Amino acid sequence: MGSFLAAFRFLTNIPVPWLKEDWQGEKSHLDFARSLGFYPLVGLIVGLILAVLGWVFSLFLPDVLTAALLTVSLVVITGGLHLDGLTDTFDGIAAGHKSFERAQEVMHLPGVGAIGVLAAICLLLSKFAAIVSLPSGSFITGLILFPVISRWAMVYAVVCYPYVRSQGLGKELKGGSAKASLWLATIFCLAVCVILGGWAGLLAMFGSWLLIMYLASFFRRRLGGLNGDTYGSINEFTEVAALIFIVALSGYFS
């Protein structure tokens, strides 16, 4: 239970009143290190919240406004955590032609550069367009499914690719029974994809997996390895990719 709550607290901006604010204790660090396997479950909760909001919004509002509010709602639910990682990643890539060290230095600066802002704008517009393109028959299914796939994507990236720093949250996650967490996350994500989308859901997950491998390899070449910011970027890109696959395969969802 502690590991799930650690994942929920880290990945969302939703307050958990009974969860202590102190993360310095040994048990808290252990729970965080083991939280990786619960990321897709947190994604399912996020997706269910979006589905409820989408259903309510669609009762009173046109499709375009509903999609816009859902895009904003997702940023609010996550506290902009992954979007912040996206902006830092692309600022680092823009500066990374000099050295990996310079890229990492830029990524840890408190401000946001022009390239990071442009990346965030392009991604949010793409996400909005993908949501507004969801057909009515797969609207609720798509809203539930894409956060599950994208949170699994982060688990895959953490476990299967090297972490660029000697210390950090990603290093802590990699040390917390990472392979077992990947198996747990993968089985859960596969089950949700099959239940909600049948073989079309599996294709959406498979297509997203191909993107994950490309992005992780790209970040490794340009930045020297992966870190927390690149995990956030992978989540954001996978959200859009999963939505696009769901739109493309919407006629085949069970």
Automatic annotation (TrEMBL):
Pathway: Cofactor biosynthesis; adenosylcobalamin biosynthesis; adenosylcobalamin from cob(II)yrinate a,c-diamide: step 7/7. Its cofactor is Mg(2+). Keywords: Cell membrane, Cobalamin biosynthesis, Magnesium, Membrane, Transferase, Transmembrane, Transmembrane helix. GO terms for biological process: cobalamin biosynthetic process. It comes from the Bacteria. It is a multi-pass membrane protein. The keyword Lipid metabolism does not apply. InterPro entries: CobS (IPR003805). GO terms for molecular function: adenosylcobinamide-GDP ribazoletransferase activity; cobalamin 5'-phosphate synthase activity. The chain crosses the membrane at residues 36-58, 64-85, 106-126, 138-161, 182-214, 234-253. Joins adenosylcobinamide-GDP and alpha-ribazole to generate adenosylcobalamin (Ado-cobalamin). Also synthesizes adenosylcobalamin 5'-phosphate from adenosylcobinamide-GDP and alpha-ribazole 5'-phosphate. Belongs to the CobS family. This is Adenosylcobinamide-GDP ribazoletransferase.
